[in-house]
Write a structure and sequence with these properties.
single chain, alpha/beta, Zincin-like, 2 domains, four-stranded mixed sheet, 11 strands
């Protein structure tokens, strides 16, 4: 007897209780195909005569990979590139700084209490990276100063887990605030230097939890909630700041 609904939206319930909705399509193909889209949606394409039980077994066997791929795509995107002009205000560690640009014989960025003063040569002003490049160099110095301190703080708060102290890398990332590998390498997005320390701590704690659960299963969120009970509020604050200041 043919299936009543050979295609459409279906759900797979994992042993841990998590439910995965997926778009199901049968076609004249020979193998089962699994696709994860950038918005986190999942599509399964299967041969015409493969039973559903085999489809669910296929998803079970690839569960860890599937959750990892979805989490990579569904991480909050990083702020967009900012175009800097004199008198403009931008965020640094959650505080607004007013940019003051000065023509000079050297290139230098120096912060006062509420302002960032950038000295820039005429030649540098004419380059494509120009002012933004000087500011980014300053932000990188700040990130190298701040991020290791926040990582040490968060790692100490989670010391009962006995996870290794990770190697820290800093780079610009288009689609994520941070990442963590099984070899204990935590990478943080340079753009996080714009955000408040509690938002930075949220991202770091999130990544450190991956050293316990390398996925986004219910167990992962249990660990995250144990060491950061207000992580949902911190995540929301991070998202709101990104939208308000960078249009995301």
């Amino acid at each position: 007897m043919p299936e009543a609904n050979p295609k459409g939206l279906r759900e797979y319930r994992h042993d841990n209780g998590d439910i995965l909705p997926f778009d199901f399509i049968r076609s004249a193909r020979k193998t089962i195909g699994l696709y994860v889209h950038r918005n986190g949606s999942v599509q399964v394409r299967a041969p015409l005569r493969v039973p559903l039980a085999q489809i669910y077994l296929f998803l079970h066997e690839r569960w860890d990979w599937l959750i990892l791929q979805r989490s990579r795509f569904m991480e909050e995107p990083a702020p967009a590139q900012v175009s800097y002009t004199d008198g403009e205000t931008f965020l640094h560690l959650g505080h607004p700084l007013m940019l003051r640009v000065h023509s000079a014989s050297h290139n230098l960025a120096k912060r006062t209490e509420n302002e960032l003063h950038v000295s820039i040569t005429k030649d540098r002003q004419e380059q494509a990276e120009g002012l933004a490049g000087i500011i980014e160099l300053w932000q990188r110095r700040e990130a190298r100063r701040v991020f290791p301190l926040r990582l040490a703080f968060c790692h100490e708060a989670m010391k009962s887990l006995r996870i290794p102290f990770p190697e820290l890398k800093i780079r610009k990332m288009r689609s994520r605030w941070g990442s963590c590998t099984r070899k204990a390498v935590v990478t943080l997005n340079l753009e996080l230097i714009r955000m408040p320390p509690d938002s930075i701590d949220y991202v770091i704690t999130h990544e450190l939890c991956h050293l316990v659960e390398f996925n986004h299963s219910s167990r992962f969120y249990q660990v995250q909630s144990q060491f950061m009970p207000d992580w949902k509020e911190r995540k929301q604050k991070l998202e709101e700041l990104a939208r308000a200041h960078y249009g995301l």
